[in-house]
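User: I'm writing a tutorial on reading structure tokens. Could you give me a worked example: one chain, its sequence, then its tokens, then a sentence or two explaining what the tokens reveal?
Assistant: Sure. Here is the example chain.
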Amino acid sequence: MSGYRTRSVQYRRPGPGSGPTRHRHRLVPPADPGAGLLESAVLPLVPDGELNTCHNALDRHIEAGAGARTALIYDSPVTGSRRRYSYAELRDEVARFAGVLAGLGVAKGDRVVIYLPMVPEAAVAMLACARIGAVHSVVFGASRPRSWRCGSTTRRRR
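And here are its predicted structure tokens:
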């Protein structure tokens, strides 16, 4: 709400015998909502900077000394398996898969469709795409490939 100011407005209820004048407060937006936004930010911002989500999700925690802390817990009620990944382990898995994607020719700005069930490898694939700058879309394993092969999931059987 930075830059907003409060305006007090007096009003009187219409009609005979209306009560006393009341005050209502409302927020009035500034003339230029973006004015002073970069200067008032908690973190210093670079006007033309870029942000890597994978760095923000993994690397900054490792740099802060939390590499051994648990970053991801997988607990499957279907298979009964449980796995824990530390930030360092998850970063290594992501870096390895990002290398696989890069080896396949995936580069910044490319589009990748991830077709996996809800398993840790899906998170690894999403973070790997973010690390190299590829745009990803996730189709979870419950969707049938035949329904999205033609680009439509609304087709009915006859």
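What the tokens reveal: Strands lie at 5-11, 22-28, 70-75, 82-86, 111-116, 135-140. The first strand starts at residue 5 and ends at 11.
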